[in-house]
Amino acid sequence: MALKYVVKKTVFGFDKTKAVKYVARPLLAGTVDYSALCDQVTKVGMAPRGVVKMVTDGLIDAIMWNLENHLSVKLGDFGTFRPAFGSKSQDTEEAVNAEALRHRKIIFTPGSYFKGMLSDVSIQKFEIPKTDETGGSQGGGSEDRPEIE
Fold first, then answer.
1. Of 74, 82, 133, which Cα lies nearest the Cα of 106?
2. Where is this region: Disordered (predicted)?
3. How far is CA 73 from CA 63, 81, 137, in A?
4. Pairing mode, if any, of strands 122-125 and 2-11?
5. If 0-12 CB within 10 Å is exposed, 13-18 middle and 19+ buried, where does residue 38 land?
6. Is pTM beyond 0.90 here?
7. Separation CA 95–CA 149 (nearest Å)
8. Where would I find the beta strands (DSSP E) of the chain?
9. What is the pLDDT of residues 14-55, one digit of tens each?
């Protein structure tokens, strides 16, 4: 298996010159919604769809309860969830309060199963063929396109 990437033209806000840069971004072909994921687990795990959904919903509820109670949740080789937030730095200890907190989030750290998968895959550039204005390919070949807009 190979992870694919595309090259994206970017202008970084912190760069005072506003120079154009190029960065690699992972290719995402779309999103699998919850219903489709339950269907996949049903086929692979041979458990009825209702059981898969019931267990998954219960897992989500249990994770939320534990995160709300200041606990990280480790799911074996799958990974760990933990609550987090950013904070504005303050000049005094007294100034650090709830208003200084921002960007509440849940951080997922992959476990050994996913880390192993990532270390074993190759990475390849995904080439998008150029098309003319009528939608047909130009030159019928595989021309390199360094960016996607």
1. 82
2. 128-149
3. 6, 5, 50
4. parallel
5. buried
6. no
7. 44
8. 2-11, 20-26, 73-74, 79-87, 101-110, 122-125
9. 767 778 888 998 898 899 999 999 999 999 999 999 999 999
